[in-house]
């Protein structure tokens, strides 16, 4: 196959050329700076930096909290998508628009709002304090902030699939004697599973890199409530560029792996739903 | 936008289950979305109108707003042009490596904002690749406005392209090819045939990119140096005020951003609706042909 199929349309060279040029100077070149800078390190030195106890503690916190937040959103996202697609209620359009709020609201604003609400004297925190539940400045606060930030992902990936679900399948199952729960478990759930997993992966990927909404509520104490992006910034502030780049490379590799996983899941979703890409 | 499907009585849950699920969903949305949003405005006005307005006209705040607007005004057109060029190349032509290119364009979405800022520091910072050269020639990129613009361009990079590519692929090239055959020049074809078809998706991408550009925190935090009155965007200014325990000031500035978010949501809904209208009209035309 030739490089490009022949076409009557103009502008291929110009548009592709500009695209590659812009992509290279804005994205590829800077990202390669990261990798090249790290390649100056020997493997042992690199390993030593990324396996420092404090850094490892931050991995555990970041990945653990992100996983938890993505799991919470897996269930609540399905719930919200289900309710939005299948039920009628007053204010539905408003709720539907609000689901996108975490995409539109700057992370710093979300950060200070959540920190204020869940502080010991905050809107919600004041009721939990007497029960001994501390949210602000603890890992729980981080999970809550990440749940906010990744809330739309599962909802928005599952909604279209639920909407396009064939009514006839459910009716057929019902006429064959299936109960409601059976219909959900055996007919609906397998159809939405790829979308659910895609939304989960998207939420997880976003959560591990999140910075702005977490640092206000987190407390940022080393070994306890310090997330990996914050570790990178601490190293930068100490002018430890090599340390910062090494940890950044770890995050980049994980991000890239997740990106490939998500692409694969989206391809599976399209295949499962019979759409040709 | 969600539309309800008419359900026959056999394929929906009992009313009790429905009310329970709806109630749970509403509770979740209220606690996680509505309450934080409301708190921004309540905290901003906690000490009255006067202090609220004073916080907004304070010189550092005004500078922050100006800087945020400048950064958006530069990064949006840049990524708009890129988005259109990339969508044109990817959607209208078939070439090797096309899906790889699409994945590369999505890369900035998957990178943490802090890493996005870091990579520019590595290139242009004092110890970076071009650091010494920049210092020699008295240019500053990191800890100055150009660095903030670059970091913002990076994080808003894919928005327009991602909206346009699926749409242009679905629309096909028939009309453009017809225009060329009828003798239109390339620019005529683009302005009069393609652009009207994609204008709503374009606008949608710009709205999303704008929300992200004005609200970006992590990447800008790394490259900006946090110099009050000079290299602080509104989100960074909010952080500084909050860390100084100036809560009214912090929430006052945050309320502008929250207002921007609400406008973004409204504009988004409107543009989505218009886009759907246009898509429905296109389908009707296609059937009629």
UniProtKB/TrEMBL annotation, chain A:
Coiled coil segments of this chain: none
GO cellular component terms listed in the entry, alphabetical order: plasma membrane
TM spans (from-to): 20-43, 63-85, 97-119, 131-155, 187-208, 214-234, 241-262
GO molecular function term, any single one: ABC-type sulfate transporter activity
Alphabetical list of PROSITE patterns matching this protein: ABC_TM1
Principal subcellular localization: membrane
InterPro entries for the chain: CysT_permease (IPR011865), MetI-like (IPR000515), MetI-like_sf (IPR035906), Sulph_transpt2 (IPR005667)
Cited Pfam families: BPD_transp_1
Membrane disposition: Multi-pass membrane protein
Similarity remark: Belongs to the binding-protein-dependent transport system permease family. CysTW subfamily.
Known function: Part of the ABC transporter complex CysAWTP (TC 3.A.1.6.1) involved in sulfate/thiosulfate import. Probably responsible for the translocation of the substrate across the membrane. Part of the ABC transporter complex (TC 3.A.1.6.1) involved in sulfate/thiosulfate import.
Self-association state and partner proteins as the record states: The complex is composed of two ATP-binding proteins (CysA), two transmembrane proteins (CysT and CysW) and a solute-binding protein (CysP).
Name of this protein: Sulfate transport system permease protein CysT
UniProtKB/TrEMBL annotation, chain B:
The keyword Acyltransferase appears for this protein: no
Principal subcellular localisation of the protein: membrane
Subcellular location: Cell inner membrane
Membrane association type: Multi-pass membrane protein
Keywords: Cell inner membrane, Cell membrane, Membrane, Sulfate transport, Transmembrane, Transmembrane helix, Transport
UniProt keyword annotation of Transmembrane helix present: yes
Known partners and oligomeric status: The complex is composed of two ATP-binding proteins (CysA), two transmembrane proteins (CysT and CysW) and a solute-binding protein (CysP).
Biological role: Part of the ABC transporter complex CysAWTP (TC 3.A.1.6.1) involved in sulfate/thiosulfate import. Probably responsible for the translocation of the substrate across the membrane.
Protein name: Sulfate transport system permease protein CysW
Lineage, uppermost ranks: Bacteria, Pseudomonadati, Pseudomonadota, Betaproteobacteria, Neisseriales
